[in-house]
User: Fold these one by one.
Assistant:
Number 1:
Amino acid sequence: MNPTYFDHNATTRVEDAVLDAMLPYFQQEFGNASSRHGYGIAARRAIDKARKQVADAVGVQPVQVIFTSGGSEANNLFIRGAADSLKPGNLFIGAIEHPCVLKPAQALSRRSCDAWSVHSLAVDTSGRVDLIAADTAMRANKPGLVSVMLANNETGVIQDVAAIAESARSHGACVHTDAIQGLGKIPVDFAALNVHAMTLSAHKIYGPKGVAALIVDKRLLLKPLIYGGGHESGMRSGTENVPAIVGFGVACELAQARLAETARHVAALRDRLEKALVSMGAVIFGGQAARIPNTCYFALPDIEGDTLVVKLDKAGFAVAAGAACSSVNPGQSHVLSAMQVDPMLARCAVRVSLGRSNTFEEVDAFLRATQRIVAELRQMSSLAR
């Protein structure tokens, strides 16, 4: 029997309807979308349809969608592509951004001849960007580029991107948001967020891995990361991954159709989960802030997160000790550090991220297993003293 999957912020199972839509493009309709014959024309039409499906999900025109190999590439395309189109200046990023925003920003700051000055936008203890401090910082150092994620992958906390963008735009900055964790969980509207660019990814919304998109304002100037045959309007050369792009389009369409229903369901599951965890003495990180409805990031004091994750896995529950991208280089979460969480408590962090298929019975079973494991660990700790 497979473990109960409670790690949907890391990735999701490909939806049956998504897979069904993808399959013909591996064998029957296998053409290169740049070819002029019937096979190529069929592939191009499939990409065009998917581009519209992705565009419709966030309220933009299809021409604004640039397909990439993943969210990391899309974020790099904005950070590096926009920076290379502008004179070096000030780049502001949220203190809790994903590494694929943090790392390229750091790389820009280390360039020898045209380095950018990188500034971190602080968050409060609930994980929200301090809007007053952000505005003050941008007044002191006029921004050229700003990137703030819509919803954090660890805590699920939602940022007021539109307010940050308004402040940034008043200084003439180009603004980007990584909206990967928001898509399919909360309404995501490009115009309402007031940004110049937005990153989306398929595998967080029951689509395939290896495909994502950068949504861009038509007036935004970017230099490509990958040069070649001029695919994606010259912004991302390389033969298109037609099956994955098709799957992304269908996943976006399904996510939009089910948005309200899914949000209600996972929110009810999380409320039940958190009520019981708090009664066990858990701390909920970001619990006082607006969050995407499926995410619970908690700590049970004195119970190390990594240990609890391993024990829960053996008990049949797949959860995370933090972001999946950080598991290769384990250590204290930079998100919790930015939130000024005590390092000892931060070591106890565990993330549960729920999905459409999860049930109340699974949540109750998880709580029973957690209670049993915590009791065992505390007894062992007591005997060791």
Number 2:
Amino acid sequence: MDDLYQYEKELYEKHITYIGGVDEVGRGPLIGPVVAACCVLPKAFQLEGLTDSKKLSEKRREQFYPYIIEHCIAYGVGIVSPEVIDEINIYEATKLAMKQAIEEVQKQIPLEHVLIDAMPLELDIPSTSIIKGDAKSISIAAASVIAKVTRDHMMIELDHKYPMYGYKYHKGYPTKKHIEAIHQYGLIEGYRKTYGPVKEVLEECKHV
């Protein structure tokens, strides 16, 4: 657990207090937005078991999410639509979502430094890009939970409207059952038209 505090501790020693951890979720799914979060934690923050959200069970993430929201200093969420993903590509859309999340935090507090999971960003404040940062920084791990739960809730809501696609199970990722469903039922609004499996369905429609 102590390893998760190494980057934050180095910055605290330099009298930097407002440190934002930044992470995203949703680069791989065929449908829905890419979501990023920026989270600023207090120095004394502790949450046993917190790590990269992908390594946590859904139940654990749902437990951690309200605790993080309640105990953080500030947080922000950035959401970039499928239409924009198709227009500018997923890499640029991810950076855009991260910048949106950072800007939301900057409206609340004077952010001094951001720790970003893997993605280098051009910002007006100092930043550090950390490979696999969601498993190395407590702030990024917290942001990863916020982003993941936020996006998962969107997919669960979509599942209520279109249960035949199974969104609450695969969260939009290209599982075998998901791909079978889009071939069977077609595409609803929100699919990323530049993604391979979606393009295949669009091609099929042309030949019907």
Number 3:
Amino acid sequence: MNKPVYMDNNATTSLSPRVLDAMMPYLTEIYGNASSKFYNVGRIAGHAVSEIRERVAVQLGVKPNEIYFTASGCEADNWAIKGIADAYKAKGNHIITSSIEHHAILSACEFLEKHGFDVTYLPVDGEGRVNPQDVEAAITDKTILISIMTANNEIGTIEPIAEIAKIAKAHGVLMHTDAVQAVGHMRVNAAELGVDLLSVSAHKFHGPKGMGLLYIRNGIRISNLIHGGGQERGKRAATENVAGMAGLAEALEIANAELNESVEKMTRLRNRLIDGIEKTIPDARLNGPRDDGRLCNNVNFSFKYIEGESILMMLDMKGVCASSGSACASGSLDPSHVLLAIGLPHEIAHGSLRLSVSAETTEEEVDYVLEVLPPIVERLRQMSPLYEG
């Protein structure tokens, strides 16, 4: 291949040229501070923020005043967990989440445990699904929040969020979902899901990095995570990133408008990868569900007798960009907490590879991966003292 084959779209995506075009006016001409109301450049920027908020709300099926912009999905997750915990601590100190959440959720919950909160980390089945009955059984009179991700970032499992949200509502418990990996790969409508809070990150669907949002249903109390000025209606201090907001809105509109076509293409490429790997590489285990319960662009395999880091380095030498799990934990030597949660032993969890496509991925690129990956796995196995051939 003449250019790198990018197969790590669950980590981040390329910035769409149309999104960049939508952002440029706010970086060059309409550069005023959106909170400055006494001159025209600032007022124009402020009006733009209001219009952008309305566009985003339409795409998520909610009201404009329920959208709060953040600097990332991680910030949105932290705000949801910590902000609700603080605002409702007089009611209770119990939070329910799952064992396969993104570290933005897990680390926020661990932080709260150090400050007097109790957290239940629900198990998942062998494909990474949370059982709604387990959620209901874990609810106590002290439970104030349930946070379950819409779709897993490592193995692509789609969770039964609408069903869990109904359970939460029936028990008077707030429901948050981390939809960071889901938006752009499936239809996400916060109102239809029935959740109270929902996190989004623009760079997962060809928007800009450093831009996210938190949907907060009207009537929900939440304490501020970032203090300072009165931006975002007094709930989140920081000078408005108007260009980033415009990029998020444009990327979200494009993703939803083209969703049916892009999902069909990504599903086809995903299945081509899965089928090809299973046909050419023995002792390869597909992690996560196979068909409808899986994100359209996600492939995750564990290869016995070898380590994922070695696969990544050798793929890189062949011009292929991939990962062994969450990009946010790529510096860790520990096996994936998600793979351990679905029952894999440490030695097999260490041999994982995540390949994630986008609508820009080509069949030629998929076939190239299927050409170079089997010899890499075989070579590494021949070097492994665990492999007996």
